[in-house]
Amino acid sequence: MKTGFYSLLCSFVTHAAIAACFIPFLLLGIKKVRQLACWWALGIYWCLNGLVNLPALEQIRSEGLRVFLLRLSDFYDLVDIPLALLIFAMASPGKARKQLLFVLLGFIAGETLLVGGKGYQYAWPVVIGTGVALILTFTVIGLLRYLKKIEHDHFEHSMAFVYAAFLFAYGTYLIIYLLYYLRTSKAEYNQTDSSLLYYTSLLLSSVVTVAGIVNYGWRWTRKATARYSSSSS
Asked: Is 199:17 a contact under the CB 8 Å cutoff?
C-alpha cells in the first residue's frame, strides 16, 4: 500500500512539475510581460526545462522523440548555467550587469575549453558543480540587493520571486549532486527518492517563478486600469 501510494505521488509530482515548467513561457502572451527581454529569457529557460524532462513521462513512447530529447538534455546541461546567468545580468543594473556578463563569458570560455579538451563525460560534473555554486552566489546577491532597497518598482518585486525560485531549485539540486558524488556505495543513493526531491523542487520553483511573472503583469495591469479610470472620471 505504501509502495503504491509512493509511486502515485512520484508520478503526480513529476507530471505537475513538467507541466508547470511551460507556464512561464505561456505567460509571454501577456503584452507587458513579453516587452521585457528578461522575461523572454526566463520563459525560454523554463520551457527548455520542461522539454528535457519530458522523457520522464510514460506517455512519451516514441523512441525517436526520446532519443532527440535526451540529446537535447545533453545540450541543455551546457547552456543551463549560462542562460541563468544571462537572466540575472538582464535583471541587474549598471555595474552589476557588466560583472555578470563578464562572469558569463568567463564561464562559457572555461566550459568550452574543458569540454573540448577532456570530453563531455569528464567535464559535466565540474561544469555543473561550478555552475550551481555561481547561481547560488548570485541569487543570494540578488536577494540581498533587493532587501537593501527601501522602495522597489514592479520588476524588482517580481525578480525577488525569481531569485527565491532559483535559490530553492539550485539549492536542492546541489543536495542531490552531493548525495550522488559523495556516496560511498550505490546502495547509499536512492534514485527514486532523489527523483521525487528533484521534481518537487522543480514544481515549487516553477510555481514561484509563475507567481513572480503574474505579480509583474497584475501590478502593471492594475496601475494601467487605475490611470484609465482616473482619466475617464
From this structure: yes
> Which three cell numbers mark 182?
559523495
DSSP 144: H
What is the distance between the alpha carbons of residues 25 and 63, in angstroms, rounded to a whole number?
A: 26
Cβ–Cβ < 8 Å for 127, 108: no
CA–CA separation, 56 and 59 (whole Å):
9
d(CA 80, CA 21): 14
CA nearest to 91, candidates 128, 48, 40: 40
Q: What is the pTM of this model?
A: 0.87
Q: Judging by beta carbons within 10 Å of its beta carbon (0-12, 13-18, 19+), is residue 216 exposed, middle or buried? A: buried
DSSP code, position 136? H
Residue linked to cell 574543458: 114
Q: Are 220 and 32 in contact (CB under 8 A)?
A: yes
Residue pLDDT, tens place only, 14-71: 999 999 999 999 999 888 888 899 999 999 999 999 999 998 888 877 788 888 888 8
CB 171 within 8 A of CB 200: no
Spacing of C-alpha 30 from chain mean position: 20
- List the alpha helices (DSSP H) in 92-119: 94-118
Give the residue carrying C-alpha cell 543570494: 140
Q: What are phi and psi of 183, to 5 degrees?
A: -70, 145
Query: How many Å apart are CA 85 and CA 135, to the nearest integer?
Result: 7
- C-alpha to C-alpha distance for 27 and 157, rounded to whole angstroms: 17
Give dist(CA 125, CA 142) in Å, integer. 26
